[in-house]
Task: inverse folding
């Protein structure tokens, strides 16, 4: 009799389990409709604190962990992917982990990428398995001197960290701390510790790309103000990298992307889902930049990308080595 009672209560407890992770892992790589509980339980549970680093993009992904974009969009708004990858994009999506917050819901970590664009996204669901908000935890850059990480701690705050190796051998670090505001349906920044700026040579991430176009060159002044232009993947485009510092370093801005030629001397950066619009206006001796809504790409709203940058004389690598020897 005692054994029967134990079995009864065990079965009853299993039947009453609800919320995040209540079913066995299904397969979500197809196009069929699935239950939200299946979607959530597909993620392997992990205990906080839980950390992801940008090195995760160097790891090979298991096909068994893939989620199709059609299934993903059943539970997550289209705008989450559009903001990162652009309109109509179908990035590869893989699960990383699920962290449960008892009585409140859970946080799902996903890895996503399409071409050169990569991101780790954290999806927040409430105790009733309803989507609350999404947070871009990592967006790897092309700077080999920086490392990024994000950690969800036991208080369920998210800390984004950036470490940078400086030219003088020291290491600078910066962090931003966020918390989920369930009522507002968003993640709120509650603390920031800006990356310490040190005087250093700027690393140009597109320096080695072809520069056959007549406006493909480096423009700028000083060590920390650069507009670098290289050939695009298509003839109607250019690849560019812009970094500037103004006001004694109080305002910094940076943007890397592709711009489309609108006229023989004007190229425009404009991507679906990104409010930032950047125009590059060329002459034989300079490039002038005009921006709209690029506040998220700079550290202050009181300055902008706007300005004129003189064209730098191109020094071939062989000539540069000779001058160094002299």
Result:
């Amino acid at each position: 009799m005692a054994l029967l009672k134990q079995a009864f209560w065990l079965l009853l407890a299993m039947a009453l389990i609800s919320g995040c992770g209540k079913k066995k892992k299904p397969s979500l790589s197809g196009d069929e409709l699935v239950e939200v509980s299946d979607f959530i339980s597909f993620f392997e549970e992990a205990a906080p604190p839980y950390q992801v680093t940008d090195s995760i993009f160097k790891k090979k992904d298991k096909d068994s962990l893939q989620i199709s974009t059609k299934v993903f969009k059943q539970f997550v708004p289209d705008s989450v992917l559009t903001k990162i990858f652009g309109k109509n994009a179908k990035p590869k999506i893989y699960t990383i982990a699920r962290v449960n917050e008892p009585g409140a819901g859970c946080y799902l970590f996903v890895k996503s990428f399409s071409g050169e664009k990569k991101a780790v996204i954290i999806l927040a669901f409430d105790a009733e398995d309803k989507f609350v908000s999404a947070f871009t935890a990592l967006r790897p850059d092309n700077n080999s001197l920086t490392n990024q990480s994000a950690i969800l701690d036991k208080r369920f705050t998210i800390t984004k960290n950036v470490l940078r190796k400086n030219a003088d051998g020291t290491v600078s670090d910066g962090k931003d701390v966020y918390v989920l505001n369930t009522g507002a349906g968003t993640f709120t920044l509650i603390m920031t510790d800006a990356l310490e700026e040190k005087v250093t040579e700027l690393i140009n991430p597109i320096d080695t790309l072809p520069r056959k176009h007549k406006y493909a060159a480096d423009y700028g002044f000083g060590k920390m103000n650069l507009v670098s232009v290289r050939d695009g993947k298509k003839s109607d485009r250019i690849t560019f990298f812009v970094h500037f510092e103004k006001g004694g370093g109080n305002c910094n801005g940076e943007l890397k992307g592709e711009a489309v030629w609108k006229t023989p001397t004007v190229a425009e950066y404009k991507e679906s889902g990104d409010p930032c619009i950047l125009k590059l206006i060329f002459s034989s001796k300079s490039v002038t930049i005009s921006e709209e809504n690029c506040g998220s790409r700079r550290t202050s709203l009181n300055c902008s990308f706007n300005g004129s940058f003189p064209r730098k004389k191109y020094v071939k690598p062989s000539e540069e080595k000779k001058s160094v020897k002299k």
About this structure: Residues 165 and 171 are 5 Å apart (CA to CA). The mean pLDDT is 85. The helical segments are 2-16, 36-41, 69-75, 78-85, 317-325. The two ends are 95 Å apart (CA to CA).
